[in-house]
Amino acid sequence: MQIAYYEQTGPAAQVLKLADVATPEPGPGEVRVRLRWSGVNPSDVKSRAGLRSTVLAFPRIVPHSDGMGHIDAVGAGVDAQRLGERVWVWNAAWRRAHGTAAQQVVLPQAMAVRLPEATPDEAGACMGIPALTALHATLCGSGVAGKNVLVAGGAGAVGHYAVQFARLLGARRVVATVSSPEKAHVALAAGADAAVFYRSADVVDQISQAVQGQGIDRVVEVDIAANAALNLQVLKPGGECVVYGSGAGKFELPFFPLISNNINLRFFIVYNLSAVDRARAEATLSSWLERGVLQHAIAARVPLADIAQAHEMVEQARVVGNVVLSLP
What we know:
About 30% of the residues lie in helices and about 25% in strands. It has helices at about 10-15, 40-50, 120-125, 125-140, 155-170, 180-190, 205-210, 225-235, 255-260, 275-290, 305-315, and strands spanning about 1-5, 15-20, 30-40, 65-75, 85-90, 105-110, 110-115, 150, 175-180, 195, 215-220, 235-245, 265, 300-305, 320-325. The strands form three sheets. Strands 3, 4, 5, 6, 7, 14 and 15 form a seven-stranded mixed β-sheet that branches. Strands 10-9-8-11-12-13 form a six-stranded parallel β-sheet, with helices on both faces. A two-stranded antiparallel sheet has the order 1-2.
């Protein structure tokens, strides 16, 4: 089978390579998925670039955690009826050497989730990180029903889903921050009540007006380091900031505004969701996918041979939406 891989960190065009390798066989409790699409996420790009560490966990890494395909082999203990099942996969490259930038991948059967027929193939490669991150950020704790929600980066891969999920989960008002008119259109089309340009001098006033002066109950935050000050200005007393990303490894938060307003901070990474949280998110997501009520923003479809170009698209934020690789 054909794979893309890297054996050292660095620029995409320099370190990403293609190779033909033996087709893997599933062991007990495992399935093999014949992949059609592989999702490219910022975390994949950062790992390949060496932004987290220049020391590889494995001598050779096949990148990407998200993918979509069909189960074409099962190991001992797996129901044979799963053969041929259309699935999306998660965490394929999380603490594993073999991700979805390959024609086939073997992984524990729980990591291959049935993909409803109403869902486009390419969208299946966006479920594991973008969709589940957005869903946990809106589902966790007491959820968002009846609340005013601010989605930071509402046109991004996660934000686009978060806007939709907040609306589906009963949010009172959904406000998205964006950086351009194009992104504002994307966020509004996804269901945001308002799209606010976060670089505007009056961004706080615009957000306040969008929620009729009642303040924000929950922020879904993509970059806590950049947006902490804004969040503290718009969150109502008792509000919460759910953080799944940061543009910097270190940041500061002022103590007194946090404690005096009873602000709650939640941090999570989608790779480490508990079994209970993941099961709840998968069930909720599957229900919506069955009904065909979600929009999926696929910005670019790139062949595996051009994986370096796909990484550069994500790295340089050249597109609005998800980038996926097609497998030969």
